[in-house]
Batch of 2 targets.
Target 1
Amino acid sequence: LNQSLKGQCRKIFVSNIPRDFTKQDILNCFEMYGELDDVNLMFKKKETGFCYITFSREENAKPLIDRGSVRYKGAELAVKLAIPKDQKEPEKAIPILDHLDQPRQRGSMQ
């Protein structure tokens, strides 16, 4: 984990949240791991929603991040560390290589 993220490990990103879940469901599910400072539950057009949860203490979030998921009301919720936008690694473009490890030319089929 990158050093600049140290101390920011209290916030987790939870995805795969069923549409019928309420903020209270999220609170019920995650409060058992420790005191929560903030819960931000969102549903877009997809079937499932996502949520940012901030714990008051880092040591409460860490076991969940290490586990990677939580089961609640029959749903498997995916859990990972929430990385602030300004901390994310920029997407790196990876060239497509053919069997000779040569970059493929556009339009040439060999």
Note: Helices lie at 23-30, 58-67.
Target 2
Amino acid sequence: LKWLYDIIKYIGDRSRPLQEGEAVFKAGHLILCGLSEENPENIKSLCLQTSGLTSPPHEISIQIVKDVTKWKCVCSCKAGLSGFSKHIVATLIYVNKSVKLCFSIYTEYK
């Protein structure tokens, strides 16, 4: 994958999730991000809620395939069903900047 290009292609002309996702990433609100043990093509992450840092984190699931138009991205936040929440974008930015993702201990966290 050409990550940065693919992220921009996935987001399309939606500038708000990109700006807000970058802010979430820079704030260090992603507390866990890794590959799903069940399916290594899936990325799972947890992200602190910006409106309530002591509340349970948002759960993000991203299924990556070669065709960017077929990516399946879901977040537990209100905007998450659209597939374009700031938490999803923050996760994609994290993956873009990561050298290597490990298998997530996501289930152990919950």
Note: The longest helix spans residues 15-26.
